[in-house]
Design goal:
6 strands, three-stranded antiparallel sheet, single chain, 2 domains, 3 helices, alpha+beta, Immunoglobulin-like, 134 residues
């Protein structure tokens, strides 16, 4: 049996979670490059909220998941403010979306309630709306 490097194995597992088929090429660099994870360049991960989305509103049904991926130099993850969402009990952290560890982008969330809140980091801000699944 050929031993697959851990980064490639993890990339394949994560890609399969997002519905990327076995015929979809995995970048040679694995998933260590955040630019590949967060951009359309990496198959299956194009659904992240990015800096280009600032000012927009995103609606998700209860238990819906989404990710945020920003340039860590401009928007350090430690400055990502979800306190408005915490107060309103709308979001929960999804650890398996932290592909590069909990202190790096991307970061994932799950809708845990109904209502709306704002996620901020410096000039970046988006409104998240949680609705009930009907």
């Amino acid at each position: 049996m050929t031993k697959v490097p851990m980064t490639r194995r993890r990339a394949i597992l994560i890609a399969s979670f997002f519905g990327v088929t076995a015929t979809t090429p995995v970048p040679a660099s694995g998933i260590s490059d955040a630019d590949n994870i967060c951009a359309d360049k990496y198959p299956g991960f194009a659904g992240f909220i990015t800096e280009a989305d600032t000012g927009k509103t995103f609606s998700y049904v209860d238990t819906g998941r989404f990710g945020i991926c920003l340039d860590a130099k401009k928007f350090p993850l430690k400055n990502l403010d979800t306190s408005d969402c915490d107060r309103n009990s709308i979001l929960g952290y999804v650890s398996n979306w932290s592909l590069r560890g909990p202190d790096n982008y991307p970061i994932g969330f799950e809708i845990t309630g109904t209502g709306s809140c704002v996620v901020r980091n410096g000039a970046f801000h988006v409104r998240i709306v949680g609705t009930k699944l009907e």
